[in-house]
Amino acid sequence: MRFLLLLSALVLSTAAGTVESLANQCCATLSNIIPNNVFFPNDTAYMQEEITYYSAQQTSQKPACRVSPTTASEVSQIIDQATRLGCHFAVRSGGHMNWKGSSNIGPSGFTIDLEQLNSVSLSSDQKTATLQPGAPWSQVYDTLSPLNLTVVGGRASTVGVGGFLMGEIVLSNGTIVTASASENADLHWALGLGSTNYGVVTSYTLETFPLGDMWGGTISLDISQAPAILNYLANFTLKLADDPRGLSAVTLAWNETSRDYDLFVSTAYLLPVSFPPLFSGLEPFVPDATSDTLTITNITAITADFAAGDPSGFRTAWWTLTFELDPQTVLEVFQYGQELFSDLVAVNGTQWSLNIQPINQDFIKATEAANNPAGLEGDNLFLILEHVIWTDASLDDVIEARSREFLAWAEFIASERGVLNRFLYLNYADGSQPIYKQIGSSNLASLQEVKRQYDPDNLLGRLWKGGFKLP
Ligand SMILES: Cc1cc2nc3c(=O)[nH]c(=O)nc-3n(C[C@H](O)[C@H](O)[C@H](O)COP(=O)(O)OP(=O)(O)OC[C@H]3O[C@@H](n4cnc5c(N)ncnc54)[C@H](O)[C@@H]3O)c2cc1C
C-alpha cells in the first residue's frame, strides 16, 4: 500500500514536472516572439501585475511567466503558440474576479495580462466609445465624463472591462474576428454569457449616452433598521418601473471596528437631484445615519467612493443566489448567516456580509427582448451576494465549507417558500456554482452549437484555465 502511495506521488510529481517544463518552454518561445513583454517571477513587472489582483488567493498563484501583449495581433500570436504547443494559460483584464484560478494560474501555465491593452477612444460623432479590456472603469469614466458622456459600466471604478462585456475577438486558432449584431452574430450573442469559452476579446465598442453630474453615495445605519430598509429596497425595486435612473444596493456587513453588524445603503441617480421621488422612502432614515457620503458630483467620484468600500488585497469569497422580492426571507437568511459565521467573525479580520441589489421587471423584459443567453426570467427580483473577507489562509477551507452550508440553506428555504429564482449572476458567482445549468436547455444547446463552430476541438476548454466552462 505504502509502495503504491509512493509510486502515485512519484507519478503525480513527474506529471507536474512535465507540465511545468512545458510551461517554461512556452514562456521561452513567447519571449522570442514578443521579447519585451514576457515577464518572469523575478521581474518587477511580474510582481507588479501579481499584486494588482483584487483577491489575495489570485495573487498567491505564480505562473511560469506573465505575458502582456500591446496589440490584438500579439494576442493572436500568443494564442496561436499556446494551442500549437499545448500550453495551459489564464487571461486577466482587471483582475477582479475573486476565486483562485479564475484569471491567474500556477507554475503549470502562463497568464496573459491585458493591462497594456488599455485604450479608450471615442468615435468622431461621439456616439460610440471603443474600450480595450485592460482599461479599468475609472479610466473609461475619466475619459468620457468631461464630455458629459458615459457608457453602461461598473459601479466600482477599479474593476476591469474584460469580464463585463464582450467587439473584436481572438479565436482559438489565432484568427481575429469581429463579433456584432451583423457580423458573426451567433458569436456576438454567445459572448453575452461567453466567459472563457470562445476567445480573448481585445476591444469592445459601446453606445455612449449623455451624463452630467449625478447624485449618489452611501449611508450607514444601525443594523436594527434592516427589516425597514429591506422593505424600502423592495418598494424601490418596484418604483424603478416609473424611473429607471437609480440604484439602491443594501449591504449588511460585519464591522471589525465596532465588532457588530452595520447596514449600508449605496445609492446613485443619473441626474443632479437629491432624493428624487424614486428614493423618497430612504430620506426618513438619513437623520439616523452614522455616516453619509451622499452628494452631487460626477460618475468618477461616485464610482471611486463605491470602490473604496471594497478594497483589494484580502482573501475573499463571493457566492450568489437570486430571490423573488421577499424581504422576510432575506432577513432570515441574513440571521442564519450571522449565526453560522459567528465564531469566524470573532477571529480577527474575518468579515461576513450579505449584499442585496434590485433587478426590476423591466430589466428582465429588456434582457428577454435581447434574447440574452443567461435566460433571466421572472418578475421583480433581489440579487443576493454573500461576501466573505479574511486574511488567514488556514481558514480557506472552513470559510468555503461554511459558505456552501449557508448557500444550501438559503437555497432550500427560498425554494420551500417558492421565492427562489434560478438565475445565477456570473460576475458574482463562485467558480463552483453551476452557471450554465440554470439558463434553460435551449440556450445551453445554442451556446454549445456556437462553441462547436468557433472552437471545434475545444482547445480553449482544455488549455484556457479559469472562468466558467460550458458543460
Ligand atoms: C469591488 C468589485 C466591484 C464589482 N462591481 C461590479 C458591478 O458593479 N457590476 C457587475 O456586474 N460586476 C461587478 N463586479 C464583478 C466583476 O464584474 C467581475 O468579477 C468581473 O469578472 C471582473 O472583470 P475583470 O476584468 O476585473 O476580471 P478578471 O479577473 O481580469 O477577469 C474575469 C474573467 O474574465 C476573463 N477575461 C478577462 N479578460 C478577458 C477578455 N479580454 N476576453 C475574454 N475573457 C476575459 C478572465 O479569464 C476571467 O475568467 C465587481 C467586483 C468587485 C471585486
UniProtKB/TrEMBL annotation:
Domain of life of the native organism: Eukaryota
Key word Signal present: yes
Signal peptide (residue range): 1-16
Annotated GO MF terms: FAD binding; oxidoreductase activity
This protein's UniProt keywords: FAD, Flavoprotein, Oxidoreductase, Signal
Pfam family, one: FAD_binding_4
FAD-binding PCMH-type domain sequence ranges: 59-243
InterPro entries, sorted: BBE, FAD-bd_PCMH, FAD-bd_PCMH-like_sf, FAD-bd_PCMH_sub2, FAD-linked_Oxidoreductase, Oxid_FAD_bind_N
Coiled-coil ranges per UniProt: none
Family listed: Belongs to the oxygen-dependent FAD-linked oxidoreductase family.
Protein name: FAD-binding PCMH-type domain-containing protein
